[in-house]
DNA sequence: ATCGCTGCAAAAATTTTGCAGGTAA
DNA sequence: TTACCTGCAAAATTTTTGCAGCGAT
């Protein structure tokens, strides 16, 4: 997963998991497959890149579910390891579906105009983490890295 | 500033600017040097690492100034380029004093237990930015990078 | 003396929680 | 049937704003 040659990842590779695969993950952990949860998973599944709570709400057909339910669902999905929470500077958290077994460690190139996202597959910072840990005495060093810029369409 | 050999920066190198130097920067731009602003600058000046709004408030002697004034001051100082705003995942923004002329581009190694911070002077990602820009067509590519771990004292 | 700054209070924005009723399994 | 889930409303957070009066220059 790490130490790869630089490459950008297309959306198809990580998204478009079938819905039943997702709901089965719920069932396996004895959570219920309800309307709101299916609707939210559909939205995450179909969208490329992390979505904010508001963006999810806007995409739900007129009040498929309550805002509180979205928050509760995102907490559940995060705790189950089905989504990963990101923070792109200011604004609330954003959530992105994770494939089963994926720890979600990857980075984004985010357009500061339209919030469009390109995913970056590889992570080059393993060596840097090790070096930092050695030099600073910290244990369990991890990192968060996001790139920002203006995408071709917005230029 | 960039492309340096890896090194950790001690606090002394970036903080401890004399207070008059800071207030003069306000005066030069025709802002007033008031009690709250001096108190806030003192706190930022004396503390190593970015502080949250709440941490600033706690350090102010019993209601040296109103919470709204802290928010307004941080906006002003940020707009003037005197502080830089950071986001370490969840929780509110954090602010760190900047030397005159410093664009504030640097990273941190943050202890997830005590929130202690080690600054990381160099930035290794210039090449990565260039590569990403070329490959993705994005312009003006920048990045945010923070490291997390458990510091020696908290282990 | 002037205009900017401040405290206070209210509002706005975001996230969490309690509770009674509904629903998946 | 039963435990979990949901909507609704209220509360808790965090940040912003309006306004009248004070204070740095």
What does this structure look like?
The structure is a homodimer of 155-residue chains. In chain A, strand 3 (83-86) and strand 4 (94-97) form a beta hairpin. Chain A is α+β, with helices and mostly antiparallel strands and 155 residues long. Mean pLDDT of chain A is 89; it is low at 1-5. Chain A contains six helices and seven strands, in the order E-H-H-H-E-H-H-E-E-E-E-H-E. The interface between A and B is large, with 36 and 36 residues. The first copy, chain A, binds a DNA duplex (25 and 25 nucleotides) through helix 3 and helix 5.
Rg of chain A computed from alpha carbons, rounded to a whole number of angstroms: 17 Å
- Listing every helix as H and every strand as E from the N terminus to the C terminus, the arrangement of chain A reads EHHHEHHEEEEHE
Helix share bin of chain A: 25-40%
Pair with the most extensive interface?
A: A-B, 36 and 36 residues
Q: Work out the number of β strands of chain A.
A: 7
Q: Can you summarize the main beta sheet of chain A?
A: 4 strands, mixed
> What is the oligomeric state here?
homodimer
Task: Give the number of helices of chain A.
Answer: 6
User: Which shape of chain A, going by the Cα principal axes?
Assistant: globular
In short:
The structure is a homodimer of 155-residue chains. Chain A has 155 residues and is α+β, with helices and mostly antiparallel strands.
List keywords for this structure.
4-stranded mixed β-sheet, globular, 3-stranded antiparallel β-sheet, alpha+beta, homodimer, DNA-binding, 7 strands, about 160 residues, about 35% helix, disordered N terminus
């Amino acid at each position: 997963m790490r130490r790869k040659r630089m490459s950008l990842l297309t959306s198809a590779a990580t998204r478009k998991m079938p819905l039943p695969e997702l709901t089965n993950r719920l069932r396996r952990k004895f959570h219920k497959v309800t309307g709101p949860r299916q609707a939210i998973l559909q939205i995450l599944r179909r969208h490329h890149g992390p979505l904010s709570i508001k963006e999810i709400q806007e995409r739900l057909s007129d009040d498929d579910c309550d805002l509180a339910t979205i928050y509760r669902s995102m907490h559940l999905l995060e705790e189950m390891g089905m989504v990963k929470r990101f923070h792109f500077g200011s604004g609330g958290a954003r959530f992105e579906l994770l494939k089963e077994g994926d720890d979600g460690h990857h980075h984004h190139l985010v357009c500061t105009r339209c919030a469009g996202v390109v995913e970056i597959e590889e992570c080059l910072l393993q060596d840097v983490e090790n070096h930092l840990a050695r030099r600073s005495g910290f244990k369990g060093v991890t990192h968060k890295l996001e790139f920002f810029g203006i995408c071709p369409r917005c230029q």
